[in-house]
Amino acid sequence: MLKNRLISLRKQKGLSQYEAADRLGFSRGKLSNYEQGTRQPDYGTLEVIADFYDVSIDYLLGRSANRKSPKDDTYDSMEKINDLLRKYNIDQSGFFDIEKWKNLGPEEIKQLESYFQFVVQEAEKHNSKKQQED
């Protein structure tokens, strides 16, 4: 199954074996062996290939018909909130009760980001005004 998926994914990207191997950091012979099924990649190599083709390792190995893992399709509101906290350099200690925020959807997260932008802009205005006064 792996060899068929590798060939199919490479062709979908419109790449020759030489081009794909070069982009993956492999020799053409190594990629050819994987595509012929005469050699099996180790786990680290599978990760590189999966990342390059933007598919899950399970898909590469034929364990799933879904190109992406179920985790990839799951919206993680806490991950998005933590991303925003890092992006806007907001100290999260005591910032919120995590249990109340876990069920936010994509639209609510966008609203939260807009609020963070507003708060940061207002703080910058305040600091600028304070510096001008000093």
Number of domains: 2
Describe the sheet with the most strands. Answer: none
N-to-C terminal Cα separation, in Å? 70 Å
- The CATH topology name of the largest domain reads 434 Repressor (Amino-terminal Domain)
Mean pLDDT: 81
Low-confidence stretches: none
Topology, number of strands: 0
Please state the overall shape, judged from the principal axes of the Cα atoms. elongated
Radius of gyration: 23 Å
What's the CATH superfamily of the largest domain, by name?
Answer: lambda repressor-like DNA-binding domains
The fraction of residues in strands falls at under 5%
Helix percent reads 55-70%
Order of helices and strands: HHHHHHHHH
Structural class: mainly alpha
**CATH architecture descriptor name of the largest domain:** Orthogonal Bundle
Describe the structure.
The protein is mostly helical. The chain has 2 domains: 2-72, 434 Repressor (Amino-terminal Domain); 77-133, no CATH class. It contains 9 helices and no strands. The mean pLDDT is 81.
List the topology elements.
Blueprint: H1 2-12, H2 17-24, H3 28-36, H4 43-53, H5 57-60, H6 70-73, H7 77-87, H8 98-101, H9 106-133
Helix pairs in contact: 2-3, 7-9
Protein name: Helix-turn-helix domain-containing protein
Keywords: DNA-binding
InterPro entries: Cro/C1-type_HTH, Lambda_DNA-bd_dom_sf
In brief, what are we looking at here?
This protein has 134 residues and is mainly α.
Task: Name a few traits of the molecule.
434 Repressor (Amino-terminal Domain); mainly alpha; 134 residues; single chain; 2 domains
